[in-house]
Fold this protein.
Amino acid sequence: MDFHPGSLLGPVPERVGRLVFLNGTPSSGKTTVAKALQEELAEPFFHHSLDELRGGYQGRYWRQDYGGVLFRRVLDGYLHMLRSLTLLGHDVISEAVITPQMLDHYLALFEGIPVLFVGIRCPLEEVERRERGRPDRMTSAPQLDEPVHTHGCYDLEVDTSVQKPADVAKLIIAALMEPPVVSAFDQLRRGKTGGQPVQADCPRDLNAR
């Protein structure tokens, strides 16, 4: 293997790592699923949420972040961290809230990286109930379900209001073992016309909902 100047270990990794994106609204169950997935996986998968990274700044900075500048910087740093980890051979589980205006950024940044795109769905009433019970919120008000899932394309979809985390984890592991021939991310890239994703011919496991 060739020397990789950006790696302390020297050699280029034998393969690019896999990235599991759990996409859904806040409080839809992404963190619970991520932890259950780590418990079920035999191989090591790295998991670190955006909220954990945000915790590196004191709450007073977030209360002053009226224009969202700090949030965008932290989000960008988080996404580039995920990309760097996978390029160094790490398998990664990540949580995402991919709104329509952010989709292009995700598709471009993670091109060439094997992404399993998992839709984490949960009825809005249940999301709001969970949100009210969370003491760890730096900001309030979950984003609505529809903008997060507007692209309409996933490798796998689940509903955490009716499916147990361990069962969801098993579905994701099965999808990792037999990934789709054309991933949802690649379908979204191929289907983009006039700046909007085409929502047809996309592989999804609708029976998982």
About this structure: Confidence is low (pLDDT under 50) at residues 138-142, 193-200, 204-209. The beta strands are 19-23, 46-47, 92-96, 115-121, 156-159.
